Amino acid sequence: MAVNICGLWDMVSNVNFDGYMIAMGIGPTTRKIALKLKHRKIIEQMDDQYIIKTLSTFKNYSLSFRVGEEFEEFTKGLDNRHCKVGFSLVTWQGNRLVCTQKGEKKKRGWVHWLEGDKLHLELYCEDQICRQVFKKNG
Ligand code: VL7
């Protein structure tokens, strides 16, 4: 493992989340609610096994995976898509934790990395990039 991203992280910025949600086909009512949310990440890790919980007052999403092992992802409660045509895969690329989510949507995935005391996340879908930053809170 390259870096330690475990802990409790609270969102401080969220750029182009709307563009990302539009690319995912999320409707206007849900997007309006979702745009107001401050996401919290709780990241736990044991060796290569990770659990990333994304929490908010509206919806929660929990992802469990082993680095380097393809897995089937169902984005339950989000856009409810299955990523299994080639599966989802998370790997370390240098100090960046990189996920590719193969499925109905093109160029879908995300990248986590640390910069100083901040956790960064870029979310990709089709041609949209959402940039999120989190500060450590435990
Ligand atoms: C997961 C949401 C938009 C539906 C609600 C928004 C609720 C809180 O994939 C993600 O994180 C990775 C990397 O940390 C681990 O799974 C981001 C949130 C993206 C997509 C869909 C809008 C409704 C957000 C769960």
Query: How many runs of DSSP E, i.e. beta strands?
Result: 10
- Name the strands of the widest sheet in spatial order: 4-3-2-1-10-9-8-7-6-5
Q: State the name of the first-level CATH class.
A: Mainly Beta
Task: Find the CATH superfamily.
Answer: Calycin beta-barrel core domain
- Assign the CATH topology: Lipocalin
- Biggest sheet layout: 10 strands, antiparallel
Residue stretches low in confidence (pLDDT < 50, at least 5 long) are: none
Please state roughly what percent of the residues sit in beta strands, choosing from under 5%, 5-15%, 15-25%, 25-35%, 35-45% or over 45%. Answer: over 45%
Amino-to-carboxy terminus distance? 20 Å
How many domains?
1
**Separate helix tally:** 2
Question: Which hetero compounds are present in the coordinates?
Answer: 1,3-dihydroxypropan-2-yl (9Z,12Z)-octadeca-9,12-dienoate
Order of helices and strands: EHHEEEEEEEEE
Topology, element by element:
Layout: E1 7-15, H1 17-23, H2 28-35, E2 40-46, E3 49-55, E4 61-66, E5 71-74, E6 82-93, E7 96-101, E8 109-115, E9 118-125, E10 128-136
Antiparallel strand pairs: 1-2, 1-10, 2-3, 3-4, 5-6, 6-7, 7-8, 8-9, 9-10
Bound molecules: 1,3-dihydroxypropan-2-yl (9Z,12Z)-octadeca-9,12-dienoate.
Residues 21, 24, 26, 30, 34, 37, 39, 41, 52, 54, 56, 58-61, 63, 78-79, 110, 121, 123 line the site of 1,3-dihydroxypropan-2-yl (9Z,12Z)-octadeca-9,12-dienoate.
Pfam families: Lipocalin (PF00061)
Keywords: Transport
Organism: Denticeps clupeoides
